[in-house]
Amino acid sequence: MVTPDFINTEAFTNLYLLLVNSVYILFPLSLILLLFSKISFKVTIFLLGVYASYSIVIPYLLKVPLINNFVLTFGDYSFFIYLIFSLIFGFVFYHLVNVAFVVGGFLLGGLVGYSIGTFIISSNGEWLNNLPFSISYIPWIIFAILGVIVAIIFSKNYQSIISIISVIFGSFILSFYTIYLLEKHTSITIGNNSLLSGWEQLSQPEFFGIFISLIIYMILGFFLIVRSNRKKGNN
């Protein structure tokens, strides 16, 4: 099977290496994302914030002499200082992502609105000449209106959208591991077991195995979301 060109990019190569080298972390994480989508993505975002604090923010802040000297004065308790700061940063990071999610909804709706406004102008309808303002404002007016509407929709359905994203991510990772781990740790041969070597020579049976697994896991994840919503509605 000839793989699409986008699979042979550096990004997909790095993704493959990440999945293979982090199997003991990402495999259980994929199960959590799939089976507990209501809370798992929130926890994941929080942990990403904690990790970013330890790996990026704290090392950068320690380059500031004033901060570095302050930490050195509490040398024996530096671990607790880092931990407290990282937990706070993880909490802040989660809420920043929440805000970014709403802003992203505004921009998404706004860009669609701007395109609609541009299309309306290009239609050259006679009614455009009777407007009490310049027609150049039309795209920006629709940008603002649709942007606000989509942002409100995103904010009202934040948890549902995050749950859907969680299921999709979890299903994709788990579908990869389903085929990869079967090939690596069992005597089962799927195609020519080329997935063990990378994406480049992915055989057709392996591709369909991943694809079918992805569909099955997504159906399971969405079923769990619907069942959870029904239980909440009955309560």
Automatic annotation (TrEMBL):
Record's keyword terms, sorted: Membrane, Transmembrane, Transmembrane helix
Transmembrane annotation, as ranges: 15-36, 43-62, 74-94, 101-121, 133-154, 161-182, 207-226
Protein known as: DUF4203 domain-containing protein
Species annotation: Petrotoga mobilis (strain DSM 10674 / SJ95)
